[in-house]
Design goal:
126 residues, alpha+beta, 5-stranded antiparallel β-sheet, 22% strand, globular
Length: 126
């Protein structure tokens, strides 16, 4: 198992350990993750210039799809940098899989995982 895979798997295990379910996540909670991620990416030192959450064009804005109770059914955050737009940053897929920037190297993935862990910690402290 590569370091990147283990980092991603460890983050997924933290989610499982938290006991949180998609349906527990409101749109406001999801948007807090977007904000934490953007702040973390702006402090990023991975060598990718101008790495941040994509808000425009609209097709790359964060996506939050609700379940019948108003909780999260699936959600997606995209990112951009100086040489790309609209790459998947963090995805909460409808089948329960949580993805972390599958396009990125281990060093680039670290701030995404860091933001995700901060977010989980905040949710558990509420």
């Amino acid at each position: 198992m590569s370091k990147k895979e283990s980092m991603n798997d460890m983050a997924r295990k933290e989610w499982e350990k938290s006991g949180l379910k998609y349906s527990d996540i409101s749109e406001a909670m999801f948007l807090r993750l977007v904000k934490i991620l953007d702040e973390t990416l702006r402090k990023n030192t991975s060598g990718i210039n101008d790495l941040c959450v994509t808000m425009k064009p609209k097709k790359y804005a964060p996506v939050f799809k609700k379940d019948y109770r108003g909780g999260m059914r699936e959600a997606y955050i995209y990112c951009r940098a100086d040489y790309f737009t609209g790459r998947e940053a963090i995805s909460f897929n409808s089948d329960g899989f949580i993805g972390f920037c599958g396009w990125a190297c281990t060093t680039t993935t670290e701030p995404f995982i860091e933001a995700f862990k901060i977010w989980i910690k905040e949710l558990l402290e509420e």
